[in-house]
Amino acid sequence: MEKWVVANWKMSGSKNLLDEYKKTFQNPKKLIVCPPSVYLNETTEFILGAQNIYHHPKGAYTGEISALMLNDIGIKYCIVGHSERRQYFEETNDMVLAKAEVCLKSSITPIICVGETFEQYQAGKTIEILSQQLRECLPNEGNFWVAYEPVWAIGTGCTPTTTEISTAHTFLREKLPEITLLYGGSVNESNAGAIFAIANVDGALVGGASLDIDKIHLIYQIAMTIKN
Ligand code: PEP
Predict the structure, then answer these.
(1) Do 34 and 51 meet the contact criterion of CB atoms below 8 Å apart?
(2) Which of 149, 188, 191 to mutate to test the pocket of ligand 1 (most atoms within 8 A of CB)?
(3) What distance, in Å, lies between the first and last C-alpha atoms of the chain?
(4) Active site residue 174
(5) In angstroms, what is the span from residue 216 Cα to ligand 1's centroid?
């Protein structure tokens, strides 16, 4: 089955890049593009998603954006708990859960990021950490997605082996039989085929490579050819 591609531009990209996406992707079935929020109100043939949301539904929180507002402009997906948010903005598992819950209340599918640090990976604690994050970050019910993003693989050019990704995703699938599961961390046009081919990987969250239109186009084309 074709795989999902979720492009996370982080605090990069431009109107020009959005125009390149518009020219390149006509009615793509499984592409979600998450640009900085100033670009979310654009008309596109692909799905737009947000990179973050505030964990309170409304109020005096200058500079923040609510799930209700995203819903108001037709946004249906939002990344929550990205490791950069956890690292630079001190987001805790409690906050990630609250963000996921405000998304669900506004009919937005949260894409909840989980994953171990390098120290935890080296100590063989990946499954233990995932287990804890699932317990503490996931709503009891609702239509959410989960992205397995080893912190040490994000933006580094390093990835776990396909066996390691498979072990993590098999664990996640056992716990979450009905949930869309993405892998994220240094996915590029060279490794996408091998990663998409892993059982229980329903797609990829792509950061750096999504800023290059040729690379993301290739990754998307690969995602559309996968059969498992
Ligand atoms: C990400 O931002 O979620 C990500 C996986 O980044 P990169 O592809 O650059 O590792």
Answers:
(1) yes
(2) 149
(3) 5
(4) no
(5) 12
Closest CA to 169 of 135, 193, 145: 145
Q: Please indicate whether residue 188, judged by its CB atom, sits closer than 6 Å to ligand 1.
A: no
What pLDDT digit, counting tens, does each position of 106-163 carry? 999 999 999 999 999 999 999 999 999 999 999 999 999 999 999 999 999 999 999 9
**Catalytic residue, candidates 82, 84, 91, 169:** 82
Domain that holds residue 201: 4-225
* Closest C-alpha to 205, from 177, 173, 165: 165
Reported pTM: 0.97
CATH number at residue 23: 3.20.20.70
**42-71: per-residue pLDDT in tens?**
999 999 999 999 999 999 999 999 999 999
Q: How many domains does the chain have?
A: 1
